[in-house]
Structures are given as C-alpha cells and as structure tokens.
Design goal:
Helix content is about 25%, strand content about 30%. The protein has 13 helices and 27 strands. It has helices spanning about 5-10, 15-20, 60-70, 120-125, 185-190, 210-215, 300-310, 320-340, 345-350, 375-400, 405-415, 450-455, 490-495; strands spanning about 30-35, 75, 80, 85-95, 100-105, 110-115, 140-150, 150-165, 170-180, 195, 225-230, 235-245, 250-260, 265-270, 275, 280, 285-290, 300, 425-430, 440-445, 445-450, 455-460, 465-470, 470-475, 485, 495-500, 505-510. The protein has a 6-stranded mixed β-barrel. Strands 14-17-25-18-24 form a 5-stranded mixed β-sheet. Strands 16-15-20-21 form a 4-stranded antiparallel β-sheet. Strand 26 and strand 27 (about 505-510) form a beta hairpin. This is Aspartic proteinase oryzasin-1. Involved in the breakdown of propeptides of storage proteins in protein-storage vacuoles. It is found in: Vacuole.
C-alpha cells in the first residue's frame, strides 16, 4: 500500500477548521454497522448480528434481555465500515427518497451530499447526486455555503427537503447541495456525503442540524445517541449507531460521564496521558478533548504524539527546525527550567517566540495552507517557535524524571527524528506491535487504556503487511487548544454515548 493510498484511507472528516483555526423505547432509531471486508472487489458482507451477553443471575439476565428486545423495535439501517477508516451508512433525501451514503460525524454539524448541478468536480461523478427536480418535497433556498474539513473542502448552496434515517423521516431539513468537491480525497471516498452530529454553534450558515430536528420533531424519546464500532475487520457486524438510546449488547460495565465544556464539538476536559504507565506530564493540569466519529485516527499535540511515536518506533520525518533548536538553545532551556522560569516564557526569552504566554508567534500547525509565497519567512519563524515550545515540554518531562542533562539532550534529538510526516501518518514495524506500550488517557478520573493492537492500523498479512501508527499530530492554539481529537481508534475501544439532554459524554469498554 503506497503512501498516497494510506493518506486517502485514513480519511479525517473532523472538526470544521474555521472554528479551530437513557433507556431505549419507542422513537429509537438503531443503525447497526456492518463490516465491509477488504476484498479486491469492494463487495459488501452481511454478517449475523451479535447476540446478547447474559448474566449468571436469571432475573438480571431476563430484564436485560427484555431491554435488548425492546431495542429491536427500533429502525435499522445497514452501515458499512471500510478498513476501520470510514464508517458510513445510508439515508434518504426527498420524496420519493434518493439514497445516499454518509459519514455520521460528531465533529461537524451540517448535512451535505453531491448535487446534480456539480459539473466541474470529478468526485461528484463517482457518487450519487441529489436531483431537486425529482423530489416532490424539495423547497428552494439557494444560500451559498462552503465547508473546510481536515482533508478537503466542499462548496455549494442550501436546499430544504425531507431526510429519512431508517423509518424516521425528518421534515423540512436544511442541507447543502455540494457543487464543488475539489481534490482526490472525496473522489475516492466510499461515502457520498457527511451528516454532522455536532452542535448548532459550528453549523455553517446557521442551519439547524439533523439531530436537533429529530429531537424537536419528537422522532426520538430520549435526546441521546450512541456509537459502537467493531474494529475486527471481517468479523461479524461492523458496528452500530443508536439514535434515542443505548444498546446494552455493546459495552461492559458502566459508562464514565464527563460534562460538555464547550458546545460546538462534543468537547470535554481530559487529564494526564500515560505511555506505558508513565505520565507525560503535558495534560496533568488538564487538556481539552473531543469525541469525533468522523476522524479515523487519534490526534493530539505534537509534543506528546512525538513521544508516543518514539516509544512505538514510528518512523517520521526529521525536523531540522527541531534539531536546530535543541543544538542552539537546548542547554539554555534546561538552565531556565532548573532556575524555575515559567515554561511558557522560555521561548520568548531566547528570542524564538515574540511574546510571553502559552504560545508566542506560534498558532500551532496551520490548518489552511498559506496561499502567499511571501509568507515563507513568517512560516519559518513560526516553525522555530513551535519547535522551541515542543522541546520545552519534552525537556521539562525528562528533568522531572531526574535524567542527566546530557541524556536529556540526546533523548530530545531522538524525538526530533520522530516528528510526524507532513501527511500526519507514521509507519511502524508490524513485528514489534506486541512489544509496544499501552497508551492511557485520563477522563473523569478514570484511565482509558489503548493496547497496541487497538491503536495500530494494519493492512495485509505476513511479509506484505503494513502497519500505521494511530496517532497523528495537530497543534491547536488557545483558547481552543491544546486539543485532543479522540477518533474512531478510541471510540472503537470504548462505546461512546452522546447525551444531548444532559450535555455530557460517556465512555465504557466496548463489548
């Protein structure tokens, strides 16, 4: 599998970059995901639904079984999972309904599908296109709209029509008819469009999200939806999204809930990140995180992602800026940290950032590629500032472990060599997966651990197998950041509940 294919395979539909940069009952919509095997023909594979895991206590087992049977009355729509990187399912738009496959994305808030008036983008010709003239329930809007995602952008205009999810029909729903889908990302995507499940605060054009209308129109009894992703390719049902409830078949134990701290994305507070049981220190005083079903990987600040990738032997691209900072300023950083200088002031004091604060010139990794070539000098200065701030985090962590200064500088140089590639992915040796450390995230006072087989994406078997680190870097500046994006890799390990009514997110071990 070539690098280009890897980049496309690990599609990140996450988080609109302009913003960065209950018991089941009637009215429940259940969407079971079914696995799409990685065969050469891309054929669909329907598998037997996973059975309920009962209790040894007959009364408890009977009650739980009744609960599970009650959920069976919900509407079922088959969704597909393409190589654990794209989870998507079918919806209908219009009367009679026109069928589309969409990503159910908690990292955005708009619904869009390709338009029949998309003439100049090749991606539109590879997917189903909405034909307004063929829908009796279509209503014209025409307001222009554009959305930029982590790996691509779309533009078009708003229209209004009914949207069917299973047997539930949402009436008078605003959505975007995409008339432009530039680039290869959307062209090779297995889905037609995206259905955002984020909050209205990040909805482009102030359009009311589909989920809001499902609740407002009384189509679900409980304002809750939940995800289960099966991460075992080719083994049974691919996963499930339930609108209006929680499926007890798909988690063990109890959910740990944390409040939504900022509406827009499903954002919450996260604590320390541990590598092999040892604290990285970076989030010990708290970091922000979002649960994002539309992101394939797990994204975090460069300083920590690089440490993780170093520990698992992921090969990235050597950063000359990073090595230059360590060579020229490493000792000065150590001296200032030992003198108890506030870490956030060090990079400005050595002249690499322009002012004191959590970040200086640095705005983190830019979310949008600069159009002006004349900004290259500014980008270099920003890169040096970023490299300095990252080095300070690493050095501070190593000094806290009582390492000698020489060993600290040697280790930081090694980390520089593990900085992620420009496309964000880093390859690893498949033969070393079993010896890699666990990575744990502290949420609500509980440690949620990912084992190597959970955070490494593998394609193929034997000598032809290729493995990719599930961790990729993105530096999001304050006030939004530092921000972690817990995508499908994390949600595959932990059943996730999005409680809209109580504004909280819950995690439990996936079953």
């Amino acid at each position: 599998m070539g690098t280009g294919r890897v980049a496309v395979l690990l599609f990140l539909t996450t988080a609109l970059l302009q913003a960065l940069l209950a018991p089941p009952a009637e009215g429940l919509v259940r969407i079971p995901l079914k696995k799409r095997p990685a065969d050469g023909n891309g054929g669909l594979h329907d598998a037997r639904r996973r059975g309920f895991l009962g209790s040894s206590n007959n009364d408890v087992a009977a009650a739980a079984l009744n609960k599970a049977e009650a959920e069976e009355e919900g509407d079922i729509v088959a969704l597909k999972n393409y190589l654990n990187a794209q989870y998507y399912g079918e919806i209908g738009i219009g009367t009679p309904q026109q069928r589309f496959t969409v990503i159910f994305d908690t990292g955005s808030s708009n619904l869009w599908v390709p338009s029949s008036k998309c003439y100049l983008s090749m991606a539109c010709y590879f997917h189903e296109r909405y034909k307004a003239s063929q829908s009796n329930s279509y209503k014209k809007n025409g307001k222009p709209a554009s959305i930029r995602y982590g790996t691509g952008a779309i533009s078009g205009y708003f229209s209004l029509d009914s949207v069917k999810i299973g047997d539930v029909v949402v009436s008078n729903q605003d959505f975007i008819e995409a008339t432009r889908e530039p680039g290869i990302t959307f062209m090779v995507a297995k889905f037609d469009g995206i259905l955002g499940l984020g909050f209205k605060e990040i909805s482009v054009g102030a359009a009311v999200p589909v989920w809001y209308n499902m609740v407002k129109q009384g189509l679900v009894d409980d304002p809750v939806f939940s995800f289960w992703f099966n991460r075992h390719a080719g083994e049974g049902q691919g996963g499930e999204i339930v609108f209006g409830g929680i499926d007890p078949n798909h988690y063990n134990g109890n959910h740990t809930y944390v409040p939504v701290t900022r509406k827009g994305y499903w954002q919450f507070d996260m604590g320390d990140v541990l590598i092999g049981g040892k604290s990285t220190g970076f989030c010990a005083s708290g970091c922000a995180a979002i649960a994002d079903s539309g992101t394939s990987l797990l994204t975090g600040p460069t300083a920590i992602i690089t440490q993780i990738n170093e520990k698992i032997g992921a090969a990235g691209v050597v950063s000359q800026e990073c090595k230059a900072v360590v060579s020229q300023y490493g000792q000065r950083v150590i001296d200032q940290l030992l003198a108890e200088t506030q870490p956030s002031k060090i990079c400005s004091s050595v002249g690499l950032c322009t002012f004191d604060g959590a970040h200086g010139v640095s705005a983190g990794i830019r979310s949008v590629v600069d159009d002006e070539a004349g900004e290259s000098n500014g980008l270099f200065n920003e890169a040096m500032c970023n490299a300095c701030e990252t080095a300070v985090v690493w050095i501070q962590n190593q000094l806290a472990q009582n390492q000698t200064q020489d060993l600290v500088l040697q280790y930081i140089n090694q980390l520089c060599e593990r900085l992620p590639s420009p496309m964000g992915q880093s390859s690893v040796d498949c033969n070393r997966v079993a010896s890699m450390p666990d990575i744990a995230f502290t949420i609500g006072g509980r440690k949620f651990t990912l084992k190597p087989e959970q955070y490494i994406l593998k394609e193929g078997e034997g000598p032809a197998a290729q493995c990719i680190s599930g961790f990729t870097a993105m530096d999001i500046p304050p006030p939004r950041g530092p921000l972690w994006i817990l995508g499908d890799i994390f949600m595959g390990a932990y059943h996730t509940v999005f409680d809209y009514g109580n504004l909280k997110v819950g995690f439990a071990e996936a079953a």
